[in-house]
Design goal:
two-stranded antiparallel sheet, four-stranded parallel sheet, alpha/beta
Length: 151
């Protein structure tokens, strides 16, 4: 049988990140021609901080993400014409439906934000993580001073 001292000597120290110690970076993603689901999962991983060695589930260790060319995001198969996006106005008979293609043409930011939002934790921390993502339909964005690096 092992002794308690020998077992504790083999244990490793687990370091947990603290909210004030996290050094956030700025990442930029070009959505031109990239599949919506693959793009959203990559962005969600960076927003949560799972790409970092100091990832801690209860602390926001993720980076800021800038998404450009959201209007050119790829939809595979016939999703642009056949898949519907629903929202409810809150009034009786207020269920509205649009195709993914219509949403991509009118508000491409909403398409990417909703896809990423559903991949983040469903709590206060997830809502905080989502605020670190900035989505733009074209190539222009006001965050060039942060010198974002490509993801």
């Amino acid at each position: 049988m092992r002794t308690h001292e020998a077992a504790s000597a083999r244990r490793r120290e687990t370091t947990l990140a603290k909210a004030g110690d996290v050094q956030r970076q700025w990442k930029i993603v070009d959505a031109d021609g990239v599949s919506l689901g693959r793009l959203a999962s990559d962005i969600a991983i960076v927003l949560m901080g799972k790409h970092r060695p100091e990832y801690t589930p209860h602390v926001d260790t993720g980076d800021n993400v800038i998404v450009i060319n959201a209007s050119k995001v790829g939809l595979s198969g016939t999703k642009a014409e056949n898949k519907l996006k629903y929202h409810y106005t809150g009034y009786p008979g207020g269920l509205k439906a649009e195709t993914f293609g219509q949403v991509r043409d009118e508000k491409p930011e909403r398409l990417i934000e909703d896809a990423v939002k559903r991949m983040l934790p469903k709590n206060r921390l997830g809502r905080h993580m989502l605020k670190k993502m900035k989505v733009f339909p074209g190539t222009e964005h006001p965050y060039a001073s942060h010198q974002p690096e490509k993801m």
